[in-house]
């Protein structure tokens, strides 16, 4: 039941919700009220955490009227919305973004100062919600930011994991994972709505029954849980718009534990409670290589079942006709994780609403669109049929029926081509009978998109060729983007100020305007100011690393940064081989150290806890770092930093400081990359392969302003087909051999020759991602970097051109592309 019980009489109860006055006094008043009556403490006795929580809630007040108004407006206009279904949202800290969106930064700073507090310190108290692994989760966060900023109706649906991505620590150079207790000090941004909880069923069996003269199927589940929604504000940038992110948390249902309780087994009832709540306990830390764990499937079904139910029952007006659903929403499937939503909607329409199959299928397939984020075969989710049958027996039947109908269509269009039909089957028999979720998404979705031009091409040609031939018009591309609010305006205030001084303020929501910076590359004063901004960012970074990690960096070095998940295909090993090679040449006096450009290399990377080789690579990087950093022969020339626990918060400090952006994946492997865009926008030059969105960055900034190297995707394919032999590169390239030999010699492991055996033998005998084949070309490109950096004026020109020419990579542009190619198509 919504609304008051009788008609309100007090004028305040009738008035619309308003924001507090946007003045220092108004802010102080709200803040103290929150501290005193919300937190229950006096300023004089409050901790930094109390102060942070009160401040966050204060800023929330300023957004509240807009949020309520957005929701009301959406209900009234019935505009078509995007239902973004994503198992991950890697949001980053909220406070700074909320202050920016409300334009309250200055007022808050003064208000805090007037209370004897420091805004920067309070902002640092926030623990970022790490509800994602890497690129895919961060992309979702950028997209919801852009949609709010562009006033496009969207509800982001996802999971409120109690523990987000693990906290990485290093012990003797090895990664040790610690739980991410992001909720432990209180979390001011989420609004729980227990009264709007949704029941989600699992297990059991299906049975047929007669309904008049039709035979129907029903699902008799054996257990269930409740999904509790937590609403989060997604403020648009200074536009009065606040969209919603709705994250679900699992709770035991009353019926569930009561039944056992009545039977007298209290302890068992409590155990059942824990079991249910396990579903949203922890984010699976595998990025791009999911483990087929039952709990993961439970998570996936749990959140999409909640979300679809919520959209139909809560977001749509009462009495809404489900035939109109495609006119009111597109559910965008963020990779295969939410694809079980397809049979779920079919089940609702066919079983609950008793629609004909064809009628339900017609509506369902106009409600979904699918984005693929990878090409790695091991990352395309496949669920064993017995697991699905045990957990979701009705959904499995529906998937079979979708598949049968689809294959019948294929056989009709291509008679006597059974091989083709088999190759397109959603259900496969090898190696085990299982369901290919990407195929299901492709069959059901009205559109299928990749995330960069090259990736979309390869997706259509290599991963789903039979489907792209069958439905050429279904396949499209939307190149990823990043939000300029968080990654330029917030993260890089000095460069932002320079841009604003040159162009005015509009660029923050119209990033193509960065093109107007082009002539400033020729302006000596601008270049100087640009370099000063970069230097300020470096100093800010060094101060942070000193305080956060005890890492001492010094000197006026080229800052060379490689931050991303640790994965063989991303080739952190190629980078470390180059560093080892530089080091080897110096200590063996093959080069004069005074002739090389002083360089500071920063790594940031988490490895999936079960990914052995990735963890060995982390160990190698740390050990090389220890040795290099303490060797007087390279002092002042080369230093390596590997701060633990790379996350969004650290990225915001690292990226603006970088001179060189490492984007060195094997061509054809990185679907897009988004870090590459953030670096270029912040004026770093890229050293990169022709992979993912690097291709588009290079095209836009021009070959002269990009350090390209390595094989192209067709060359990679040809080398693979001819039988790649990494050993031959080792044997024929003395520089490469010397670097690998130095690693194997124990020089970085106190003489222990076995310390890096897993990495070394993998490189020499497998090297699935062909690091050795690209080594020589990479070394040449790094030499070109050094030569270019020696001329600071020329380097600054190139860096400014990178900023000026990469406005395309705003996620606002991505949203426009989704709108025109998918959501309004
Ligand atoms: C990533 C890809 O690895 C990146 O190339 C891409 O830029 C982003 O997605 C966003 O599209 N990705 C990921 O982070 N997790 C996956 N499971 C699959 C892809």
UniProtKB/TrEMBL annotation:
Enzyme class label: transferase
One Gene Ontology biological process: glycogen catabolic process
GO molecular function: glycogen phosphorylase activity; pyridoxal phosphate binding
Glycosyltransferase keyword on record: yes
Cellular component GO terms held in the UniProt record: cytoplasm
One Pfam family linked to the record: Phosphorylase
Cofactor: pyridoxal 5'-phosphate
Record's keyword terms, sorted: Carbohydrate metabolism, Glycosyltransferase, Pyridoxal phosphate, Transferase
Domain of life: Bacteria
Enzymatic reactions: [(1->4)-alpha-D-glucosyl](n) + phosphate = [(1->4)-alpha-D-glucosyl](n-1) + alpha-D-glucose 1-phosphate
Family matches, as InterPro entries: Glycg_phsphrylas, Glyco_trans_35, Pyridoxal_P_attach_site
Enzyme Commission number(s): 2.4.1.1
Modification N6-(pyridoxal phosphate)lysine, positions: 678
Gene3D superfamilies: Glycogen Phosphorylase B
Function, as annotated: Allosteric enzyme that catalyzes the rate-limiting step in glycogen catabolism, the phosphorolytic cleavage of glycogen to produce glucose-1-phosphate, and plays a central role in maintaining cellular and organismal glucose homeostasis. Phosphorylase is an important allosteric enzyme in carbohydrate metabolism. Enzymes from different sources differ in their regulatory mechanisms and in their natural substrates. However, all known phosphorylases share catalytic and structural properties.
Similarity section: Belongs to the glycogen phosphorylase family.
Protein name: Alpha-1,4 glucan phosphorylase
Source taxonomy: Bacteria, Bacillati, Actinomycetota, Actinomycetes, Propionibacteriales
């Amino acid at each position: 039941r919504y609304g008051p019980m009788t008609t309100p009489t007090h004028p305040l109860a009738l008035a619309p919700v308003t924001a507090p006055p946007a003045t220092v006094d108004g802010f102080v008043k709200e803040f103290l009220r929150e501290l005193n009556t919300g937190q229950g403490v006096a300023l004089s006795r409050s901790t930094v955490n109390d102060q942070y929580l009160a401040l966050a809630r204060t800023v929330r007040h300023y957004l509240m009227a807009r949020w309520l108004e957005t929701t009301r407006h959406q209900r009234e206009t019935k505009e078509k919305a995007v239902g973004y279904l994503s198992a991950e949202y890697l949001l980053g800290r909220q406070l700074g973004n909320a202050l920016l969106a409300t334009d309250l930064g200055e007022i808050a700073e003064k208000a805090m100062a007037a209370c004897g507090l420091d805004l920067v310190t309070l902002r640092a108290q926030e623990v970022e919600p790490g509800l994602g692994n890497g690129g895919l989760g961060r992309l979702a966060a950028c997209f919801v930011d852009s949609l709010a900023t562009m006033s496009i109706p969207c509800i982001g649906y996802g999971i409120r994991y109690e523990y987000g991505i693990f906290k990485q620590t290093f012990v003797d150079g090895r990664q040790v994972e610690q739980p991410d207790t992001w909720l432990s000090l209180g979390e001011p941004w989420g609004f729980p709505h227990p009264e709007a909880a949704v029941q989600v069923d699992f297990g059991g069996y299906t049975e047929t029954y007669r309904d008049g003269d039709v035979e129907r199927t029903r699902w008799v589940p054996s257990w269930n849980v409740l999904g509790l929604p937590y609403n989060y504000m997604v403020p648009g940038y200074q536009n009065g718009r606040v969209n919603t992110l709705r994250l679900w948390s699992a709770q035991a249902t009353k019926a569930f534990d009561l039944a056992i309780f009545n039977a007298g087994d209290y302890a068992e009832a409590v155990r059942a409670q824990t079991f249910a709540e396990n579903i949203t306990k922890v984010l699976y830390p595998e990025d791009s290589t999911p483990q087929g764990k039952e709990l993961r499937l439970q998570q996936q079904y749990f959140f999409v079942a909640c979300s679809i139910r919520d959209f139909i029952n809560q977001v749509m007006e009462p009495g809404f006709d489900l035939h109109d659903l495609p006119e009111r929403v597109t559910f965008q499937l963020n990779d295969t994780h939410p694809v079980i939503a397809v049979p779920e909607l079919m089940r609702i329409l066919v079983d609950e609403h008793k629609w004909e199959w064809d009628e339900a299928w017609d509506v369902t397939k106009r409600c979904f669109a699918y984005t693929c984020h990878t090409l790695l075969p091991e990352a395309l989710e496949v669920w064993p049929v017995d697991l699905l049958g045990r957990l979701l027996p009705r959904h499995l039947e529906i998937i079979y029926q979708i598949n049968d109908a689809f294959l019948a269509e294929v056989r009709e269009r291509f008679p006597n081509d059974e091989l083709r039909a088999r190759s397109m089957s959603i259900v496969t028999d090898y190696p085990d009978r299982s369901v290919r979720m990407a195929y299901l998404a492709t069959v059901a979705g009205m559109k299928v998109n990749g995330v960069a031009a090259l990736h979309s091409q390869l997706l259509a040609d290599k991963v789903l060729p039979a489907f792209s031939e069958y439905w050429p018009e279904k396949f499209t591309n939307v190149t990823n983007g990043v939000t300029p609010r968080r990654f330029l305006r917030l993260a890089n205030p000095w460069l932002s100020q320079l841009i604003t001084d040159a162009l005015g303020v509009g660029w923050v929501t119209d990033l193509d305007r960065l093109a107007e910076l082009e002539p400033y590359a020729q302006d000596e004063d601008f270049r100087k100011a640009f370099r000063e901004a970069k230097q300020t960012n470096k100093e800010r970074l060094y101060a942070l690393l000193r305080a956060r990690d005890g890492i001492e960096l010094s000197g006026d070095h080229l800052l060379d940064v490689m931050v991303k998940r640790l994965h063989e295909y991303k080739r952190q090993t190629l980078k470390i081989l180059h560093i080892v090679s530089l080091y080897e040449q110096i200590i063996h006096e093959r080069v004069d150290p005074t002739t090389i450009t002083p360089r500071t290399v920063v790594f940031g990377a988490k490895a999936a806890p079960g990914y052995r080789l990735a963890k060995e690579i982390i160990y190698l990087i740390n050990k090389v770092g220890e040795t290099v950093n303490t060797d007087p022969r390279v002092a002042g020339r080369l230093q390596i930093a590997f701060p633990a626990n790379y996350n969004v918060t650290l990225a915001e400090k690292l990226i603006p400081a970088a001179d060189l952006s490492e984007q060195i994946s094997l061509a054809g492997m990185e679907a897009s990359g988004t870090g590459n865009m953030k670096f270029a926008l912040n004026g770093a030059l890229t050293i990169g392969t022709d992979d993912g969105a690097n291709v588009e960055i290079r095209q836009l900034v021009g070959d002269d302003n990009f350090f390209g190297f390595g094989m192209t995707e067709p060359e990679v394919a040809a080398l693979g087909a001819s039988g790649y032999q990494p050993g031959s590169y080792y044997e024929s390239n003395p520089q490469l051999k010397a670097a690998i030999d130095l690693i194997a010699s124990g020089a970085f492991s106190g003489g222990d020759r076995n310390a890096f055996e897993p990495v070394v033998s993998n490189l020499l005998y497998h090297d699935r991602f062909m690091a050795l084949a690209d080594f020589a070309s990479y070394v040449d490109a790094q030499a070109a970097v050094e030569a270019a950096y020696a001329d600071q004026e020329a380097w600054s020109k190139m860096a400014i051109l990178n900023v000026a020419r990469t406005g395309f990579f705003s996620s606002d542009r991505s949203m426009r592309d989704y709108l025109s190619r998918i959501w309004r198509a």
